């Protein structure tokens, strides 16, 4: 099985810039503090990963494969909290 590594933080930020946005702007557009989405760059956070991936135009699993697939390629469960208010 071919394993793919996660994107480097700088590559994620560069991809956002190529789309004409920034990590802080994506955070603010999601009604989060400017620095909140930076958490998804260093640790698993399904909601943050989804917001970043949507801004880039790719599925989160393509950006962070280690967070979505085990070493054998099986998909890992990635629950998101239901935050209906």
Structure at a glance:
With 85 residues, this protein is mainly α. It has helices at 9-18, 23-29, 39-42, 46-56, 60-63, 65-68. It contains 6 helices and no strands.
Task: Identify the notable features of this structure and list them briefly.
85 residues, mainly alpha, Helix-turn-helix transcriptional regulator, transcription
Descriptive report:
With 85 residues, this protein is mainly α. It has a single domain, classed as 434 Repressor (Amino-terminal Domain) (Orthogonal Bundle), CATH 1.10.260. The protein is 47% helix and 0% strand. The longest helix has 11 residues. The protein is globular, with a radius of gyration of 13 Å. It starts with 8 loop residues before the first helix and ends in a 17-residue tail after the last helix.
If you consult CATH, what is the topology? 434 Repressor (Amino-terminal Domain)
Number of strands: 0
Highest-level CATH class: Mainly Alpha
> How would you classify the helix and strand content by structural class?
mainly alpha
What does the average pLDDT come to?
Answer: 89
Radius of gyration: 13 Å
The CATH architecture classification is: Orthogonal Bundle
Portion of residues within helices:
40-55%
Keywords: DNA-binding, Transcription, Transcription regulation
Pfam family, one: HTH_35
Protein name: Helix-turn-helix transcriptional regulator
Family: Belongs to the ner transcriptional regulatory family.
């Amino acid at each position: 099985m071919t394993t793919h590594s996660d994107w480097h933080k700088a590559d994620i930020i560069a991809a956002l810039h190529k789309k004409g946005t920034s990590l802080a702007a994506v955070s603010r557009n999601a009604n989060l503090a400017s620095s909140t989405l930076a958490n998804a760059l260093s640790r698993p956070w399904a909601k943050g990963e989804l917001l970043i991936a949507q801004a880039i135009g790719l599925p989160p699993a393509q950006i962070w494969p280690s967070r979505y697939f085990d070493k054998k390629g099986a998909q890992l469960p990635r629950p998101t909290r239901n935050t209906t208010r």
